Task: structure prediction
Amino acid sequence: MDSCLFCKIIKKELPAKFIFESENAVAFPDINPSAEVHILIVPKGHIGGVQDLDKESGGLLAEIYLVANQLVKQYNLEDSLYRVVVNGGKAQHVPHLHFHLLGGNLNKLV
Ligand code: 5GP
Ligand code: ZN
Result:
């Protein structure tokens, strides 16, 4: 989607440091971190939010959680605190589905 911030990041029209990239997803640090580790895991295809998922979305969701699994290990979060958070509706500010991986000291709720 042309006007979407995360679509622009995915197309590299806006800067972000990709920690992970595959055919279907990217991960990059949140610009305004709420915890020591705050990474956004984002499907490449434009999906507005959880409300737009359907039965075909299962494979993509599994991939996203496997990226989270890999990052949890990469950042040694198993033995500290971590959360995977998805905001929706009025709690969601960027209308392109994304998963917050928060770890270390969780200062505030996202
Ligand atoms: P939401 O409230 O939609 O769940 O979260 C959106 C997140 O995107 C926020 O945590 C915000 O800091 C982050 N964010 C907004 N704009 C940018 C940006 O241009 N680059 C990066 N890396 N993160 C962004
Ligand atoms: Zn988008």
Q: What stands out?
A: The chain has a mean pLDDT of 95. The first helix runs from residue 5 to 10. The domain at 5-103 is CATH 3.30.428.10 (HIT family, subunit A).
